[in-house]
Amino acid sequence: MAIEVRIPTILRTYTGGEKAVDAEGTTLTEVIDNLEANHPGLRERLLDGADLRRFVNVYVNDEDVRFTGSLETPVKDGDQIVVLPAVAGGSDRSS
């Protein structure tokens, strides 16, 4: 069994259009390395140097990794990782 990584629409060009891909590793860092090996270009979209990009949210089994160890968050077979780009914006509708 592998770790399922859910890919947001904006990054699916790196996965051949796949909504979810399998990866391996024991930490989020290892999973990202495995993703990069199989889907080149993803790492630079997820990481800024040695940290997660500011506007990329990553969840392991619905837990925000920023509160569970960030890139050192442990993962195991059967876990689900969800990558979500942060969305901001809107308009000032004051009149």
Describe the structure.
This protein is α+β, with helices and mostly antiparallel strands. It has a single domain, classed as Beta-grasp domain (Ubiquitin-like (UB roll), Roll). Helix content is about 15%, strand content about 25%. The protein is built from 2 helices and 7 strands, in the order E-E-H-H-E-E-E-E-E. The model has no long low-confidence stretch (mean pLDDT about 95).
What is shown here, in short?
With 95 residues, the protein is of the alpha+beta class.
Detail the topology: elements first, then pairings.
Elements: E1 3-6, E2 20-23, H1 28-38, H2 42-46, E3 47-48, E4 51-52, E5 56-60, E6 63-64, E7 80-85
Parallel strand pairs: 1-7
Antiparallel strand pairs: 1-2, 3-4, 5-6, 5-7
Strand content: 25-35%
Task: Say what the CATH topology is.
Answer: Ubiquitin-like (UB roll)
Which CATH C-level class is it?
A: Alpha Beta
What is the helical fraction, as a range of percent?
A: 10-25%
How many domain regions? 1
CATH-defined superfamily:
Beta-grasp domain
Number of helices: 2
Report the structural category. Answer: alpha+beta
Strand order of the largest sheet: 2-1-7-5-6
- End-to-end Cα distance, whole Å, is 56 Å
Mean pLDDT: 93
Global Rg: 14 Å
Pick out the low-confidence regions.
Answer: none
Number of strands: 7
Assigned CATH architecture: Roll
Shape summary: globular
Query: What is the element string, with H for helices and E for strands?
Result: EEHHEEEEE
User: Sheet bearing the most strands, described?
Assistant: 5 strands, mixed
List the main descriptive attributes of the protein structure presented here:
single chain, about 100 residues, alpha+beta, Ubiquitin-like (UB roll), two-stranded antiparallel ribbon, 2 helices, about 25% strand
